[in-house]
Amino acid sequence: MDNEVFRVEGVSKMFGAFQALNDVSLGVRHGEVLAIIGPNGAGKTTFVNIVSGVFGPSRGRVLLEGADITAFSPQRRTRLGLSRTFQITSLFGGMTVAEHMQLAVRGGDTLGHERAELLEEMGLAGSAPRPVDTLSHGDQRILEMAMAMATKPKVLLLDEPTAGMSVAETDTMIRLICDRLRGKVGVIIIEHDMSVVTQTSDRVTVLAAGAVAASGSPEAVLRDPLVKELYLGSAAGH
Ligand SMILES: Nc1ncnc2c1ncn2[C@@H]1O[C@H](COP(=O)(O)OP(=O)(O)OP(=O)(O)O)[C@@H](O)[C@H]1O
Ligand SMILES: [Mg+2]
């Protein structure tokens, strides 16, 4: 595929005798936002863990700019340009926003003024001296994104970035993804909220029972009767 920065090829994952992923292949182009959706238990978190290097696939390969990174640690992936949003649990309550930005780029090449610019763009400049545990939940998640951006990623993995957010915080996150990420880096977003998916994504891939069930434009995929059926039972409450 033209301009592709990231690809998983034939990825399967067994947990004992249980197959959580079955021969999943997909790619992301530079600047493209790809949403991965799917009902509960579809394998989304398993996919995120394989992409970010928490554990390896049973079969298949993970490629960054065509290079095989399947066996690389999460840290090494980050250094090569594959970042994921940090989990809230990885923020240190007593430390400030500015200190977190420094932590994120330890060993990296983002300069102080670049970090300040990032905070400015993310609307967090005024919060730089604040301990992170005084931030709202939404601002903590935006800080996670700023930290991931500070590593200058080529591909950014966002794992349910709007989970637990208020409507206003969700709108801010949507705007950040569209203005700051879309068109600039490859993005994979795992998202339950279909309104976030349609507002941020260029393409949607549906996982169901560990396999790709559909793929295409958000409009086409969400209109697909098969996808509607998949969602009727398990995701009706989301
Ligand atoms: N470590 C594990 N050992 C055994 N089974 C697992 C393990 N991790 C996940 N599974 C199973 O693999 C399947 C996929 O799980 P996964 O967490 O990837 O789904 P998901 O799409 O993230 O679901 P959700 O929307 O609920 O977060 C589920 O049936 C789950 O029970
Ligand atoms: Mg999950």
From TrEMBL:
Residues 6-234 form the ABC transporter domain. Signal peptide: none annotated. Keywords: ATP-binding, Nucleotide-binding, Transport. GO terms for molecular function: ATP binding; ATP hydrolysis activity. Pfam families: ABC_tran. One of its GO terms (cellular component) is plasma membrane. InterPro entries: AAA+_ATPase, ABC_AA/LPS_Transport, ABC_transporter-like_ATP-bd, P-loop_NTPase. SUPFAM superfamilies: P-loop containing nucleoside triphosphate hydrolases. PANTHER family: CONSERVED COMPONENT OF ABC TRANSPORTER FOR NATURAL AMINO ACIDS-RELATED. This is ATP-binding cassette domain-containing protein. It comes from Nitratireductor arenosus.
